[in-house]
TrEMBL record:
Catalytic reactions on record: hydrogencarbonate + L-glutamine + 2 ATP + H2O = carbamoyl phosphate + L-glutamate + 2 ADP + phosphate + 2 H(+); L-glutamine + H2O = L-glutamate + NH4(+)
Associated pathway: Pyrimidine metabolism; UMP biosynthesis via de novo pathway; (S)-dihydroorotate from bicarbonate: step 1/3; Amino-acid biosynthesis; L-arginine biosynthesis; carbamoyl phosphate from bicarbonate: step 1/1
Name of the coding gene: carA
Entry's Gene Ontology molecular function annotations: ATP binding; carbamoyl-phosphate synthase (glutamine-hydrolyzing) activity; glutaminase activity
Protein name as it appears in the record: Carbamoyl phosphate synthase small chain
Length: 366
């Protein structure tokens, strides 16, 4: 097992708050927008979710690394978070199915982390002050030097990131002889979304972020389209908004998750905005207002659609509401086979309350 030295490390927030801890992962420096995830399990799925690209993740669970890492539990081909902040960083793991330790995993992929932080205090601070940029370093301990480096980090507001995490080549998932075909616009798609399609007898072809509707239609003649999750500001993605508008014009079924939800709203003249603190965790209660039932959902987003604009729109209707803060969690386009949700029905390891949305989409395709 790789040596873990517990050298000193520093976390500096954009508002000047400083935390001192121990080095974890690679020795180095990293920057990004700091956010926190309240999930009690599934840390590897979080690390590899492309929606977390350019973000420093604070884990609220006390132990990270205790069940190791497994090649089977990734949502993309690499770690996507910019860095990790945690309380207890466990290099010894207790699961037979694991392939290795978190320390080996982070060192292989050049991920800088900091441990031995009072994450409860840190999360309360972020919750009260809002999302902001941060820097972690285990090689530079001088706060003034870190402050000057942090000043150069761009704000997430206005940042287009999906083209940086999207596939560069098309690829397919599932049985090519399947009766149903879905074109997937990859803005940072998670592997478990694609598994949910193949499990339902759907043959999916995944396209780079800036592929147009016409290119997908001509190449694949799909039964419908899926607009994926992904990182960054949806308002900085006019190319994707145009693609969604063209899909809506075609009349073919469309389903969007997370960033895809925000883009469907923008395509219907509903603006988005950066949230004071995003939703990130496995326990967000959402009401399906169509079926009048509650779902426990997995969420990861720092932007949302403007509720007042959704309520005033004559183009869409609300299908889902967040019961914590009344934010809009789902919409469908009036007179079209097009709908979206802000949360993650494919969530792995769970909860699985919302998997029916894939069945609804498949029914539309048929």
């Amino acid at each position: 097992m790789t040596n873990y030295t517990k050298l000193p490390a520093v976390l500096l927030l954009a508002d000047g708050t400083v935390f001192h801890g121990k080095a974890a992962g690679k020795i180095g420096t990293t920057t990004g927008e700091i956010c926190f995830n309240t999930g009690m399990t599934g840390y590897q799925e979080v690390f590899t979710d492309p929606s977390y690209y350019a973000q420093i993740m604070v884990a609220t669970n006390a132990h990270i690394g205790n069940y190791g890492v497994s090649k089977e539990e990734v949502e993309s081909d690499k770690i996507q978070i910019a860095g990790l902040v945690c309380k207890n960083y466990n290099i010894n793991y207790s699961r037979k199915q694991a392939d290795g330790s978190i320390q080996d995993y982070f060192q292989e992929q050049n991920i800088v982390a900091i441990s031995d932080i009072d994450t409860r205090q840190l999360v309360r601070h972020i919750r009260d002050k809002g999302a902001m940029n941060a820097i972690i370093s285990s090689e530079i301990l001088d706060v003034e030097t870190l402050r000057s480096k942090l000043a150069d980090v761009p704000d997430m507001d206005g940042l287009e990131l999906s083209s940086q995490v999207s596939t560069t080549e098309t690829y397919t998932v599932g049985d090519e002889n399947a009766a149903l075909r879905v074109a997937v616009l990859d803005l940072g798609v998670k592997k478990n979304i694609l598994r949910n399609f193949s499990d339902r007898g759907v043959f999916a072809k995944v396209y780079p972020a800036k592929t147009t509707y016409a290119e997908m239609e001509q190449d694949f003649q799909p039964n419908g389209f899926f607009i994926s999750n992904g990182p960054g500001d949806p308002a900085a993605m006019p190319y994707a908004v145009e693609t969604v508008k063209d899909i809506l014009e075609s009349g073919k079924p469309m389903f969007g998750i997370c960033l895809g939800h925000q883009l469907l709203a923008l395509a219907n003249d509903i603006p988005t905005r950066k949230m004071f603190n995003g939703h990130r965790g496995l326990n967000h209660p959402v009401k399906n207002v169509i079926k009048n039932h509650c779902e426990v959902t997995s969420q990861n987003h720092g932007f949302g659609v403007v509720p007042e604009a959704v309520k005033a729109s004559d183009k869409v209707e609300i299908t889902h509401i967040n019961l914590n803060d009344q934010s809009i969690e789902g919409i469908r386009v009036i007179g079209k086979n097009a709908f979206s949700v802000q949360y993650h029905p494919e969530s792995s390891p769970g909860p699985h309350d919302s998997r029916y949305l894939f069945d609804d989409f498949v029914a539309m395709l048929k």
